[in-house]
Amino acid sequence: MVEAWYMDESQEDQRAPHRLQPNRAVSLEQLRRLGVTYRRLDADNYETDPCLKEIRKAENYSWMDIITIHRDKLPSYEEKIKTFYEEHLHLDDEIRYILDGSGYFDVRDKDDKWIRISMEKGDMITLPAGIYHRFTLDENNYVKAMRLFVGEPVWTPYNRPADDLPARKQYMKFLAEEAQ
């Protein structure tokens, strides 16, 4: 089961958990109010999983690939790790399904505080278009993830600040409506 918490302000190793002391856990409901959705799937059988097939059909996820993030598997590893950890947003939802290994997605809450979401094998997350976020490996230094898209993939990250983009404005409107 996914676990999430508010992060401390430490600039030390990004792969460390960075929990506040005392820990401030974040529930799935709190994530949902930020537009973040979570599912638990059978990663051992992702190639034939009827649940994944149904999700792809229902959500129109017509394109997918698999990325392995590890020093020995990813070209330009150091550069990619830095890019993934820069705070950014996308114009489309970001859908990731962890097939093996583990890592962290960090998202901003409505008060601009960081929430760290620990992801491991079997976890699927959808980050809404317009949410500021970043990704890092954890201390295991390995993750294999399926990336899903509606239509052709668009890899463009818009580094913060990107508040003038329509996706960000729409996301902020969503947050305001959730707060009511």
From TrEMBL:
A GO cellular-component term linked to this record: nucleus
PANTHER family found in the cross-reference section: ACIREDUCTONE DIOXYGENASE
Pfam families per record: ARD
EC number(s) on file: 1.13.11.54
One GO term of the biological process aspect: L-methionine salvage from methylthioadenosine
Catalytic activity of the protein: 1,2-dihydroxy-5-(methylsulfanyl)pent-1-en-3-one + O2 = 4-methylsulfanyl-2-oxobutanoate + formate + 2 H(+)
Protein name, UniProt field: acireductone dioxygenase (Fe(2+)-requiring)
Membrane topology according to the record: Peripheral membrane protein
Keywords: Amino-acid biosynthesis, Cytoplasm, Dioxygenase, Iron, Metal-binding, Methionine biosynthesis, Nickel, Nucleus, Oxidoreductase
Names of the cofactor(s): Fe(2+); Ni(2+)
Protein species of origin: Chunga burmeisteri
Gene: Adi1
Chief location bin: membrane
